[in-house]
Predict the structure.
Amino acid sequence: MQASGNNLEGIFYEQSTVTLGTGATKKTQVLKNYCRAEQIDKDSIRVIYLDQGGKPTGIELKLTIDEFVKRFTLEPNYKPKTKEEILLDKHIARAEKHRERKEFNSAEWEYSSALKIDQESLKANFGIGTLYMEMGEEAKAREVFRKITEIDAIFEEQNKHIFNEFGINLRKAGMYDEALTHYSKAIEISPDDEHLYFNVARVYFEKGDIPTAIDWLDKALSINPDFDEAKRFKESIEKEKKKAL
């Protein structure tokens, strides 16, 4: 944020959460709406919303400084999307809409079009990989998952949720070894996330390896002793274990 006389200006974002898909494909996505903000008097801020390319959308707001501070966060490293990045996002959005309608061939075409623009796009690779799983194309899905592990950008904190989602989908498909590989990547990125350890425990439980499942639950609880879901899962497993003796 820059000061010019008594004026403040800069690029900010307002964060919102949306839910996409239904059932097994349901997921929550965090969106950022960017704007240019400039102070117009001692009490007011003008907010000018920007499109993906960084150009004004024509939507403007006048807010009090207090309201602005509550809603918006400074983005010092703002970078508008290129035409290629905007087109990539459009293909992925269309693919997800086709997928929701079970129009798998159209979804595959859109994801493939996105990958022609950026073959290392995590969103596009994740999308087409899980799409192949839904289509029953296990060999194709495995190849996509193998490719993703070779993408350098995976080793970033912001991408840990992608590996978590991959792991969940792989576990549900019974691809346990692949699920464990992707959870391991997520844990490398974020070793203090107790939910990742919990999800690893679920994989081992479904594989029938109860002792290892309990070990991973203990790891989750060592990070967060108040992790109620892990506590309940461990109690349930131990009860079943006693019954089997």
Notes: The radius of gyration is 22 Å. DSSP finds ten helices and six strands in the chain.
